[in-house]
Amino acid sequence: MTVETKQQYNDEYISRFSSSRNEPEWMKELRQQALSQSESLDMPKPDKTGIKNWDFDTYVHEVEGEKISSLESLPASVAALIDADNAPNLYIQRNNSATYLALNEKWSEQGVIFTDIFTALQQHGDLLKRFYMKDAVNIDEDRLTALHTALMNGGVFVYVPKNVVVDEPLQTIFWQEDDKVASFNHILIVAEANSAVTYVENSISHNADQATFANAVTEVIAADNANVSYGAVDNYAAGTTVYAKRRGVAYRDARIDWAIGQMNDGNTISEHITHLIGDNSGSEAKSVVVGRGKQIQNFTTNIVHFGKNSVGSILSHGVMKDQASSVFNGIGKIEHGASKSDATQETRVLMLSQGARGDANPILLIDEDDVVAGHAASVGRVDPLQLYYLMSRGITKHEAERLIIHGFLAPVVNQLPIETVKNQLTQVIEGKVN
Amino acid sequence: MAGSVLEIKDLHVSIEDKEILKGVNLTIKSGEFHAVMGPNGTGKSTLASAIMGHPKYEVTSGSITLDGEDVLEMEVDERARAGLFLAMQYPSEISGVTNSDFLRSSINARREEGDEIPLMKFIKEMDEAMDFLEMDKNMAQRYLNEGFSGGEKKRNEILQLLMMKAEIGILDEIDSGLDIDALKVVAKGINKLRDENFGCLIITHYQRLLNYIEPDFVHVMMQGRVVKSGGSELSKRLEAEGYDWIKQELNIQDETINA
């Protein structure tokens, strides 16, 4: 951390920021404690990726966003994410301001909470306190995580009470309209016993040259027999350095399924861990990546099995072009006692240019005998025989490559439950690989 | 179009510097069904792959023309758009691309931009062709060849052949691994195409398929060449007597390309 940042976003600043948002006292104290811890903590150490020269310090912490009067007034890049005629559950955060919020009454009547993190802190402080940086992510994991806690400046809280099944997706858009604004978004999703919810998130910015920082933490808690389906498309522009931490905790018979499109254009560290705590819990963690330019990225997807008969599967597909380089770590860990568990993973990297680099590291760590585990990993070019087959039907080489690449990234695209978000991701992929 | 002519002259083909075809001559015209037969390892499939432009096969000399145009100068996709279709023995599996999206792209590849097949018309044609080939409708939405059984892959190749309206079809061991019912369905699909605008080259080493698709011409390949040609009576004699009499007649000890 530079001296400048230290001076600018110090204890006094944080205390003032917290007060201005009318946060409960515990939150202010948590921030201050985290700031002081951050000074002695180490930076994260992503495997095989050096981050010494990355810029984690250039950003503006708080920028207001104008209210959104109607969805029609949104610029095309944001509007394209929304089905304006059918968006009953939608939160739009513009810079650091909660500027649009809708939740179908039928859910609020059943006690579902879907609101920005600051409103949640004011109105549901005690509930938040039970889960915020408790069971999923710890403040002191590394310096950036502590800094996230100290400087959290946006995000969303989703709470689904016992036995409530929300059968419409909840959609969030983090729109970093200002080129300098940092995103310290905190996403907290709590699904109580026997509940179900589908959440879909888009992060978007346009700062191709201006440096800034995104340091987001997502925590998903699925209580007994709860079912959380989480979809996200991260689409920060080249100027944004990204540290994204996503963590799930699944209790007995619970499921957390992830589908993540990692479409950032800047340097990115993504750490994604799911703890299968309860017996019979399960998780599917799917992610797709397109790397281009001189981008350096590091992706870790980890499912840790504690519960018996827990089932985890990881799928990571990456497309690398230009001079982009990425490390993909897939980790299936079965703890002692998690008998009859099943851990599988598949990591595949498609290289489109000579100068691109991709590293696929499948890792199985198993401390139990009676389990099933498997992994597949590959790094390679577009299969010439696949190209030949498609071209033998008259399809041009360019179009054949396009079909193969879209097919390769389809596992995440197809899983996103909102048509507009799906289409938008397809277009982002199109724009990046062409 | 009045009809097409695919002309193969003195074709020599190598794979990884090993010569496999050693001077093949063959002419296929619209309206004609040709069968190329021969034991394993005599170069039959290499001929099919070389015509289509498989990346592993290198044509070292000779020529292939379609209506006078130099096929060897064309990229694989240009060959297809010129009217050639190869039903492959081992079609690739392509994850994430649905069979129906692939079919539509293939059909549109042969049409002008702005003249793409209307979606409804496409769906209707596909449904009809799938019914005709007794294919499960859900195969349209499955990923291309992924998890298809051997028989499903073959039917799917014929589905493409039916829908793509090629001038010259080449079938590379379309009968291998098929049970008798599937074989009949595949033959039914191919026979449906028989008219004066369609020529076909059927590569097989079993007479069995030719019980259902009567060829006009039969060619026997050995040692990387066509060593004998005749009418459908030739395939019947091969069925009854095997290949030994040809070897004796031509004084061939080892019929494979290793000879």
Helix-strand topology string of chain B:
EEEHEEHEEHHEHEHEEEHH
What's the alpha carbon Rg of chain B, rounded to whole Å? 18 Å
User: How many structural domains in the coordinates of chain B?
Assistant: 1
Give the neighbour order of strands across the main sheet of chain B. 6-9-10-3-11-12
**What Rg of chain A do the Cα atoms give?**
21 Å
**What characteristic shape of chain B results from the CA principal axes?**
globular
Helix content of chain A: 10-25%
- Could you name the CATH homologous superfamily of chain B? P-loop containing nucleotide triphosphate hydrolases
Number of domains of chain A: 2
Low-confidence stretches of chain A: none
* CATH architecture heading of chain B: 3-Layer(aba) Sandwich
Spatial gap, N to C terminus of chain A: 37 Å
Number of strands of chain B: 12
**How many helical stretches of chain A?**
11
Number of strands of chain A: 19
User: How much of the polypeptide of chain B forms β-strand, as a percent range?
Assistant: 25-35%
Family (chain B): Belongs to the ABC transporter superfamily. Ycf16 family.
GO molecular function (chain B): ATP binding; ATP hydrolysis activity
Protein name (chain B): Fe-S cluster assembly ATPase SufC
Pfam families (chain B): ABC_tran
What does this structure look like?
The complex is a heterodimer of chains A (434) and B (259). Chain A has helices spanning 3-8, 11-20, 25-38, 76-79, 105-108, 117-123, 125-131, 143-151, 384-391, 397-413, 419-433; strands at 90-94, 97-102, 113-116, 154-160, 170-176, 185-191, 196-205, 212-222, 227-235, 240-250, 255-262, 268-276, 282-291, 296-305, 311-320, 325-334, 342-351, 357-366, 372-381. Chain A is an alpha/beta fold and 434 residues long. Chain A folds into two domains: 3-277, no CATH class; 384-434, no CATH class. In chain A, helix 6 crosses helix 7 and helix 10 packs antiparallel against helix 11. Chain A starts with a helix and ends with a helix. Chain B has a single domain (5-250), classed as 3-Layer(aba) Sandwich (Rossmann fold). Chain B is built from eight helices and twelve strands. In chain B, helix 5 runs parallel beside helix 6 (180-192). The longest helix of chain B has 15 residues, at 150-164. Chain B is globular, with a radius of gyration of 18 Å. The chains are: A alpha/beta (434), B alpha/beta (259). At the A-B interface, helix 9 and helix 10 of A face helix 2, strand 7 and helix 3 of B.
